[in-house]
Design a protein that fits this description.
Length: 328
Protein backbone atom coordinates (compact mmCIF):
# COMPACT_ATOMS: atom_id res chain seq x y z
CA UNK A 1 0.00 0.00 0.00
CA UNK A 2 1.49 3.33 -1.01
CA UNK A 3 0.87 6.73 0.52
CA UNK A 4 1.93 10.34 -0.06
CA UNK A 5 4.35 12.03 2.31
CA UNK A 6 6.73 14.93 2.48
CA UNK A 7 10.23 13.64 2.90
CA UNK A 8 13.42 15.42 3.93
CA UNK A 9 16.71 14.12 2.63
CA UNK A 10 20.27 15.27 3.11
CA UNK A 11 22.56 13.81 0.48
CA UNK A 12 24.91 14.75 -2.36
CA UNK A 13 22.17 17.05 -3.69
CA UNK A 14 22.10 18.94 -0.39
CA UNK A 15 19.19 19.36 2.03
CA UNK A 16 15.81 19.02 0.33
CA UNK A 17 12.17 18.36 1.16
CA UNK A 18 9.89 16.91 -1.52
CA UNK A 19 6.57 15.09 -1.96
CA UNK A 20 7.17 11.36 -2.27
CA UNK A 21 5.07 8.27 -2.82
CA UNK A 22 6.15 5.78 -0.17
CA UNK A 23 5.24 2.22 0.68
CA UNK A 24 4.91 0.91 4.22
CA UNK A 25 8.55 -0.16 4.55
CA UNK A 26 9.92 3.23 5.70
CA UNK A 27 7.32 3.59 8.47
CA UNK A 28 9.24 3.88 11.71
CA UNK A 29 8.83 1.73 14.80
CA UNK A 30 5.73 2.22 16.86
CA UNK A 31 2.73 0.43 18.30
CA UNK A 32 -0.02 2.52 16.67
CA UNK A 33 -0.60 3.17 12.95
CA UNK A 34 -2.62 6.26 12.08
CA UNK A 35 -4.39 7.25 8.87
CA UNK A 36 -3.72 10.99 8.92
CA UNK A 37 -6.57 13.41 8.13
CA UNK A 38 -4.87 16.74 8.78
CA UNK A 39 -1.51 18.11 9.79
CA UNK A 40 -0.25 21.68 10.02
CA UNK A 41 2.78 23.91 9.55
CA UNK A 42 4.37 25.25 12.72
CA UNK A 43 7.51 27.36 13.03
CA UNK A 44 9.51 24.23 13.86
CA UNK A 45 8.19 22.51 10.72
CA UNK A 46 9.57 25.50 8.80
CA UNK A 47 12.98 24.91 10.39
CA UNK A 48 12.76 21.21 9.51
CA UNK A 49 11.61 21.67 5.92
CA UNK A 50 14.20 24.30 5.08
CA UNK A 51 17.08 22.96 7.17
CA UNK A 52 17.63 26.48 8.53
CA UNK A 53 18.19 25.03 11.98
CA UNK A 54 19.26 21.43 12.64
CA UNK A 55 15.99 20.18 14.14
CA UNK A 56 15.94 17.04 11.95
CA UNK A 57 18.26 14.46 13.38
CA UNK A 58 17.89 11.53 10.96
CA UNK A 59 17.34 11.16 7.23
CA UNK A 60 15.19 10.47 5.34
CA UNK A 61 12.43 11.81 7.58
CA UNK A 62 8.87 13.05 7.16
CA UNK A 63 8.36 16.44 8.83
CA UNK A 64 5.24 17.41 10.78
CA UNK A 65 5.25 17.80 14.57
CA UNK A 66 1.42 17.54 14.63
CA UNK A 67 -1.21 15.24 13.23
CA UNK A 68 -4.84 14.31 13.68
CA UNK A 69 -6.26 11.12 12.28
CA UNK A 70 -7.77 7.68 12.81
CA UNK A 71 -6.06 4.63 14.31
CA UNK A 72 -5.96 1.76 11.81
CA UNK A 73 -3.93 -0.66 13.90
CA UNK A 74 -2.85 -0.63 17.56
CA UNK A 75 -0.92 -2.77 20.01
CA UNK A 76 -1.25 -0.06 22.67
CA UNK A 77 -3.78 -0.61 25.48
CA UNK A 78 -5.21 2.94 25.31
CA UNK A 79 -6.01 2.90 21.57
CA UNK A 80 -7.95 0.68 19.17
CA UNK A 81 -8.70 0.78 15.44
CA UNK A 82 -11.21 3.53 14.68
CA UNK A 83 -10.12 5.85 17.51
CA UNK A 84 -9.60 9.49 16.56
CA UNK A 85 -6.27 10.76 17.90
CA UNK A 86 -4.05 13.82 18.10
CA UNK A 87 -0.25 13.96 18.24
CA UNK A 88 1.78 17.02 19.27
CA UNK A 89 5.54 16.94 19.60
CA UNK A 90 7.53 14.25 21.45
CA UNK A 91 10.28 14.65 18.82
CA UNK A 92 7.95 13.54 16.00
CA UNK A 93 8.91 15.45 12.85
CA UNK A 94 12.43 15.78 14.29
CA UNK A 95 13.79 12.30 15.06
CA UNK A 96 10.71 10.20 14.17
CA UNK A 97 8.73 10.58 10.92
CA UNK A 98 5.79 12.90 11.40
CA UNK A 99 2.40 14.15 10.33
CA UNK A 100 2.94 15.67 6.88
CA UNK A 101 1.96 12.34 5.32
CA UNK A 102 -1.16 10.26 4.77
CA UNK A 103 0.09 7.62 7.20
CA UNK A 104 2.18 7.57 10.39
CA UNK A 105 3.39 4.97 12.85
CA UNK A 106 3.87 6.26 16.37
CA UNK A 107 4.18 5.28 20.00
CA UNK A 108 0.75 5.17 21.65
CA UNK A 109 2.30 6.84 24.70
CA UNK A 110 2.58 10.01 22.59
CA UNK A 111 -1.07 10.11 21.48
CA UNK A 112 -4.13 11.59 23.08
CA UNK A 113 -7.73 10.95 22.08
CA UNK A 114 -9.17 13.70 19.89
CA UNK A 115 -11.29 15.84 22.25
CA UNK A 116 -14.96 15.41 21.30
CA UNK A 117 -15.31 19.19 20.91
CA UNK A 118 -13.05 19.21 17.86
CA UNK A 119 -12.95 17.80 14.34
CA UNK A 120 -9.50 16.62 13.17
CA UNK A 121 -9.29 19.81 11.10
CA UNK A 122 -10.00 22.02 14.10
CA UNK A 123 -7.46 20.10 16.18
CA UNK A 124 -4.83 20.86 13.57
CA UNK A 125 -5.94 24.48 13.27
CA UNK A 126 -4.99 24.58 16.95
CA UNK A 127 -1.93 22.31 16.59
CA UNK A 128 1.21 22.70 18.66
CA UNK A 129 0.98 26.48 18.28
CA UNK A 130 -2.47 26.66 19.86
CA UNK A 131 -1.79 24.06 22.51
CA UNK A 132 1.35 26.02 23.45
CA UNK A 133 -0.67 29.24 23.65
CA UNK A 134 -2.98 27.42 26.07
CA UNK A 135 0.01 26.26 28.14
CA UNK A 136 1.09 29.93 28.38
CA UNK A 137 -2.37 31.05 29.49
CA UNK A 138 -2.54 28.25 32.07
CA UNK A 139 0.89 29.29 33.41
CA UNK A 140 -0.27 32.92 33.76
CA UNK A 141 -3.33 31.73 35.68
CA UNK A 142 -1.33 29.30 37.82
CA UNK A 143 0.86 32.21 38.90
CA UNK A 144 -2.14 34.33 39.84
CA UNK A 145 -2.48 36.67 36.86
CA UNK A 146 -6.18 37.52 36.80
CA UNK A 147 -7.84 39.98 34.38
CA UNK A 148 -8.05 42.70 37.07
CA UNK A 149 -4.24 42.74 37.42
CA UNK A 150 -3.74 44.67 34.15
CA UNK A 151 -2.75 44.33 30.51
CA UNK A 152 -1.29 41.20 28.94
CA UNK A 153 1.34 41.63 26.22
CA UNK A 154 1.35 39.07 23.39
CA UNK A 155 4.43 39.21 21.12
CA UNK A 156 4.60 37.73 17.62
CA UNK A 157 0.89 38.45 17.69
CA UNK A 158 0.19 37.75 14.01
CA UNK A 159 1.71 34.26 14.17
CA UNK A 160 0.14 30.98 15.26
CA UNK A 161 0.90 31.00 18.99
CA UNK A 162 0.19 34.73 19.18
CA UNK A 163 -3.16 34.56 17.38
CA UNK A 164 -4.49 31.73 19.56
CA UNK A 165 -3.16 33.42 22.73
CA UNK A 166 -5.04 36.63 21.87
CA UNK A 167 -8.30 34.78 21.22
CA UNK A 168 -8.00 32.78 24.46
CA UNK A 169 -7.02 35.71 26.68
CA UNK A 170 -9.70 38.03 25.28
CA UNK A 171 -12.40 35.39 25.81
CA UNK A 172 -11.21 34.96 29.41
CA UNK A 173 -11.65 38.70 30.02
CA UNK A 174 -8.05 39.89 29.84
CA UNK A 175 -7.12 43.16 28.13
CA UNK A 176 -4.61 42.17 25.46
CA UNK A 177 -1.95 44.34 23.82
CA UNK A 178 -0.72 42.73 20.59
CA UNK A 179 2.86 43.41 19.48
CA UNK A 180 3.33 42.92 15.74
CA UNK A 181 5.60 43.86 12.87
CA UNK A 182 2.57 43.77 10.59
CA UNK A 183 0.57 46.91 11.26
CA UNK A 184 -1.61 46.07 8.24
CA UNK A 185 -2.94 43.12 10.28
CA UNK A 186 -4.25 45.42 13.03
CA UNK A 187 -7.90 44.78 12.08
CA UNK A 188 -7.33 41.02 12.16
CA UNK A 189 -5.71 41.26 15.60
CA UNK A 190 -8.54 43.44 16.93
CA UNK A 191 -11.10 40.97 15.59
CA UNK A 192 -9.34 38.23 17.53
CA UNK A 193 -9.73 40.34 20.67
CA UNK A 194 -6.69 42.61 20.96
CA UNK A 195 -7.58 45.88 22.68
CA UNK A 196 -4.42 47.65 21.53
CA UNK A 197 -1.73 47.12 18.92
CA UNK A 198 1.93 48.08 19.36
CA UNK A 199 4.73 48.04 16.83
CA UNK A 200 7.23 45.30 17.61
CA UNK A 201 10.10 47.74 17.00
CA UNK A 202 9.25 49.20 20.45
CA UNK A 203 10.49 45.95 21.97
CA UNK A 204 13.05 44.50 19.56
CA UNK A 205 16.09 46.74 20.16
CA UNK A 206 18.46 46.55 23.16
CA UNK A 207 16.75 48.18 26.18
CA UNK A 208 17.28 49.11 29.83
CA UNK A 209 17.32 46.58 32.69
CA UNK A 210 14.11 48.15 34.04
CA UNK A 211 11.50 50.18 32.18
CA UNK A 212 8.08 51.66 32.96
CA UNK A 213 5.81 49.00 34.50
CA UNK A 214 3.19 48.06 31.89
CA UNK A 215 2.30 44.35 31.87
CA UNK A 216 0.61 42.13 34.41
CA UNK A 217 1.52 39.21 32.19
CA UNK A 218 3.28 38.39 28.93
CA UNK A 219 3.03 35.65 26.32
CA UNK A 220 6.34 35.89 24.48
CA UNK A 221 6.89 33.93 21.27
CA UNK A 222 9.88 35.97 20.13
CA UNK A 223 12.79 35.72 22.63
CA UNK A 224 15.96 37.85 22.39
CA UNK A 225 15.68 41.62 23.11
CA UNK A 226 11.88 41.41 22.90
CA UNK A 227 11.75 38.99 25.82
CA UNK A 228 14.32 41.05 27.76
CA UNK A 229 12.29 44.25 27.22
CA UNK A 230 9.06 42.47 28.09
CA UNK A 231 10.58 41.38 31.42
CA UNK A 232 11.92 44.89 32.04
CA UNK A 233 8.46 46.41 31.53
CA UNK A 234 6.48 43.84 33.52
CA UNK A 235 4.75 45.16 36.64
CA UNK A 236 5.75 44.26 40.18
CA UNK A 237 4.80 40.60 40.78
CA UNK A 238 3.90 40.01 37.12
CA UNK A 239 4.51 36.88 35.07
CA UNK A 240 6.28 36.42 31.73
CA UNK A 241 5.73 33.17 29.84
CA UNK A 242 8.54 32.44 27.37
CA UNK A 243 7.84 29.92 24.63
CA UNK A 244 9.49 31.12 21.43
CA UNK A 245 12.53 32.38 19.57
CA UNK A 246 11.25 34.06 16.39
CA UNK A 247 13.64 36.97 16.98
CA UNK A 248 16.42 34.88 18.49
CA UNK A 249 17.50 32.22 20.95
CA UNK A 250 19.44 34.73 23.07
CA UNK A 251 18.12 36.42 26.20
CA UNK A 252 20.13 39.62 26.73
CA UNK A 253 18.51 40.57 30.04
CA UNK A 254 19.58 41.35 33.61
CA UNK A 255 18.28 39.95 36.89
CA UNK A 256 16.74 43.34 37.76
CA UNK A 257 13.10 42.49 36.92
CA UNK A 258 13.33 39.28 38.96
CA UNK A 259 15.08 40.56 42.09
CA UNK A 260 13.66 44.11 42.20
CA UNK A 261 10.10 43.54 40.97
CA UNK A 262 9.53 39.89 41.82
CA UNK A 263 8.75 39.11 38.18
CA UNK A 264 8.33 35.41 37.41
CA UNK A 265 9.76 34.03 34.18
CA UNK A 266 7.83 30.88 33.32
CA UNK A 267 9.34 28.62 30.67
CA UNK A 268 6.87 26.82 28.42
CA UNK A 269 7.66 23.56 26.62
CA UNK A 270 5.06 21.71 24.61
CA UNK A 271 7.25 18.96 23.18
CA UNK A 272 7.89 16.84 26.28
CA UNK A 273 4.94 18.02 28.37
CA UNK A 274 3.47 15.03 30.23
CA UNK A 275 0.16 13.48 29.14
CA UNK A 276 -1.82 14.92 32.07
CA UNK A 277 -0.79 18.48 31.21
CA UNK A 278 -1.56 17.94 27.50
CA UNK A 279 -4.98 16.55 28.26
CA UNK A 280 -5.65 19.45 30.63
CA UNK A 281 -4.58 21.97 27.96
CA UNK A 282 -6.78 20.34 25.30
CA UNK A 283 -9.73 20.26 27.71
CA UNK A 284 -9.22 23.98 28.36
CA UNK A 285 -9.02 24.67 24.60
CA UNK A 286 -12.38 22.93 24.20
CA UNK A 287 -13.83 25.28 26.82
CA UNK A 288 -12.02 28.57 26.19
CA UNK A 289 -11.35 28.82 22.44
CA UNK A 290 -14.15 30.26 20.33
CA UNK A 291 -14.47 28.03 17.20
CA UNK A 292 -15.40 31.07 15.09
CA UNK A 293 -12.17 32.81 16.13
CA UNK A 294 -10.22 29.63 15.34
CA UNK A 295 -11.73 29.55 11.86
CA UNK A 296 -10.97 33.26 11.37
CA UNK A 297 -7.25 32.64 11.91
CA UNK A 298 -7.04 29.44 9.79
CA UNK A 299 -6.48 28.66 6.15
CA UNK A 300 -6.24 25.25 4.49
CA UNK A 301 -3.69 23.94 1.99
CA UNK A 302 -2.85 20.58 0.41
CA UNK A 303 0.22 18.45 1.11
CA UNK A 304 2.28 19.78 -1.82
CA UNK A 305 1.43 23.40 -0.93
CA UNK A 306 2.87 22.89 2.55
CA UNK A 307 6.37 22.79 1.07
CA UNK A 308 6.43 26.52 0.27
CA UNK A 309 5.13 27.42 3.70
CA UNK A 310 8.34 26.32 5.41
CA UNK A 311 10.28 29.39 4.37
CA UNK A 312 7.20 31.66 4.59
CA UNK A 313 6.61 30.88 8.26
CA UNK A 314 10.27 31.50 9.12
CA UNK A 315 10.04 34.86 7.34
CA UNK A 316 7.06 35.79 9.54
CA UNK A 317 4.76 35.87 6.50
CA UNK A 318 2.19 33.33 7.67
CA UNK A 319 -0.79 34.88 9.43
CA UNK A 320 -2.40 32.79 12.15
CA UNK A 321 -2.62 29.09 11.46
CA UNK A 322 -2.42 26.81 8.42
CA UNK A 323 -3.99 23.37 8.31
CA UNK A 324 -2.70 20.83 5.82
CA UNK A 325 -5.22 18.46 4.26
CA UNK A 326 -2.79 15.62 3.56
CA UNK A 327 -5.35 13.89 1.34
CA UNK A 328 -5.75 16.89 -1.01
P1 LIG B 1 4.82 31.97 13.60
O1 LIG B 1 5.86 32.16 12.56
O2 LIG B 1 3.43 31.66 13.20
O3 LIG B 1 4.78 33.26 14.53
C1 LIG B 1 5.93 33.95 14.90
C2 LIG B 1 5.67 35.44 14.82
O4 LIG B 1 6.75 36.15 15.40
C3 LIG B 1 5.58 35.97 13.40
O5 LIG B 1 4.32 35.77 12.82
C4 LIG B 1 5.88 37.43 13.62
O6 LIG B 1 4.71 38.07 14.12
C5 LIG B 1 6.91 37.39 14.77
N1 LIG B 1 8.27 37.49 14.27
C6 LIG B 1 8.84 36.82 13.23
N2 LIG B 1 10.13 37.17 13.08
C7 LIG B 1 10.38 38.09 14.03
C8 LIG B 1 11.54 38.85 14.39
N3 LIG B 1 12.69 38.72 13.71
N4 LIG B 1 11.46 39.71 15.42
C9 LIG B 1 10.29 39.84 16.10
N5 LIG B 1 9.17 39.15 15.81
C10 LIG B 1 9.22 38.28 14.80
O7 LIG B 1 5.35 30.84 14.58
P2 LIG B 1 4.56 30.08 15.75
O8 LIG B 1 3.52 30.97 16.30
O9 LIG B 1 4.21 28.72 15.28
O10 LIG B 1 5.72 29.93 16.82
C11 LIG B 1 6.20 31.09 17.49
C12 LIG B 1 7.47 30.75 18.26
O11 LIG B 1 7.13 29.87 19.32
C13 LIG B 1 8.53 30.04 17.43
O12 LIG B 1 9.81 30.52 17.82
C14 LIG B 1 8.37 28.60 17.81
O13 LIG B 1 9.56 27.87 17.66
C15 LIG B 1 7.96 28.73 19.26
N6 LIG B 1 7.19 27.58 19.75
C16 LIG B 1 7.61 26.99 20.90
C17 LIG B 1 6.93 25.97 21.45
C18 LIG B 1 7.36 25.41 22.75
O14 LIG B 1 7.01 24.28 23.07
N7 LIG B 1 8.09 26.17 23.54
C19 LIG B 1 5.77 25.38 20.75
C20 LIG B 1 5.32 26.16 19.60
C21 LIG B 1 6.05 27.20 19.11
P3 LIG B 1 4.32 39.58 13.74
O15 LIG B 1 4.42 39.68 12.25
O16 LIG B 1 2.93 39.74 14.25
O17 LIG B 1 5.32 40.47 14.44
Amino acid sequence: MTYQALQINKDDNGYHCTVQTLDDSPLPEGDVTVQVDYSTVNYKDGLAMTGKSPVVRKFPLTPGIDLAGTVTDSQHPLFKAGDKVVLNGWGVGESHSGGLAQKARLKGDWLIHLPSAFTPRQAMAIGTAGYTAMLCVMALQKHGVTPDKGDILVTGAGGGVGSVAIALLAKLGYRVVASTGRQHEADYLRQLGAADIMDRSELSAPGKPLAKERWAGVVDTVGSHTLANACASTKYGGVVTACGLAQGMDFPSSVAPFILRGVTLAGIDSVMAPRALREAAWARLAKDLDPAQLERMTREVGLADALALGSEILAGQVRGRVVVNVNA
